[in-house]
Write a structure and sequence with these properties.
The protein has a single domain (6-241), classed as Carbamate kinase, CATH 3.40.1160. 36% of the residues lie in helices and 18% in strands. The chain contains 8 helices and 11 strands. The strands form 2 sheets. The protein has a 9-stranded mixed sheet, with helices on both faces. Strands 7-8 form a two-stranded antiparallel sheet. Helix 1 (33-47) links the parallel strand 1 (13-18) and strand 2. Helix 1 packs across helix 3.
Length: 243
């Protein structure tokens, strides 16, 4: 144990939620291995602080269920395809983390024993206690639920102290900062305000689930090198939702 670092850590167990698009880099589709490796290095740097980490990764870089259903595909089928896309992303992240020497488990809500573990809560908690990174794949295993909702559900089940939502911007703004120069960033904001203003942090069911269990959501920029580790060490720019 590194006595000088340990007391600085604000949270002991967290869930990192990132979109599938975060793994694309500058490409318009799919996986960009250097970007996956960069995010894996960020995760390792936080794990090295002694923090227990689990992850949920979206699938929008490969297939997005809502877009599929909008093009005439039956919604449940489209959603299951989206869930399978998240498994592909989880396996890519697992490979990147293990190349860095981080023991990682991919845990799927849809059983596929040849490639990953089925979701068993007690087993997943044990992995975290052993400082393994757990990547929860296939959403909740149900159609009509997003990976945001899956992240909030798993964070509650794992007794995480916060959800870290990695995005393209360094927090929650009152309007899109990429389009409006006068956009204002919130340091803190309530769950209800996020819902009432439709601020798009996460979908409404995910925000409501976090609110009902008083689980804070930390919104930060995944593009900021060292940002994830910095916030856990007590500095950096972010917005705290609720909690």
């Amino acid at each position: 144990m590194n006595g000088s670092e340990e007391p600085k850590v604000k949270y002991n167990r967290v869930l990192l939620k990132i979109s599938g698009e975060a793994l694309m880099g500058d490409q318009g589709y799919g996986l960009h291995p250097p970007t996956v490796a960069r995010i894996a290095a960020e995760v390792k740097s936080v794990r090295d602080l002694g923090v227990e980490i689990c992850m949920v990764i979206g699938g929008g870089n490969i297939f997005r269920g809502l877009q599929g259903s909008a093009q005439g595909m039956e919604r449940t089928t489209a959603d299951y395809m989206g869930m399978l896309a998240t498994v592909m992303n989880a396996l890519a992240m697992q490979a990147a983390l293990e190349q860095l020497g981080v023991h990682t488990r991919v845990i799927s809500a849809i059983p596929m024993d040849q490639v990953c573990e089925p979701y068993i809560r007690r087993r997943a908690v044990r992995h975290l206690e052993k400082k393994r990174v757990c990547i929860f794949a296939a959403g909740t295993g149900n159609p009509y639920f997003t990976t945001d909702t899956a992240a909030t559900l798993r964070a509650n089940e794992m007794a995480c102290e916060a959800i870290f939502k990695g995005t393209k911007v360094d927090g929650v703004y009152d309007k899109d900062p990429k389009k409006h120069a006068d956009a204002t960033r919130y340091d803190t904001i309530s769950y209800d305000e996020v819902l009432q203003r439709h601020l798009g942090v996460m979908d409404a069911s995910a925000i409501a689930l976090a609110r009902d269990n008083n689980l804070p959501i930390i919104v930060f920029s995944l593009d900021e090198p060292g940002g994830f580790r910095g916030i856990l060490a007590g500095h950096g720019t972010y917005t705290r939702v609720g909690g």
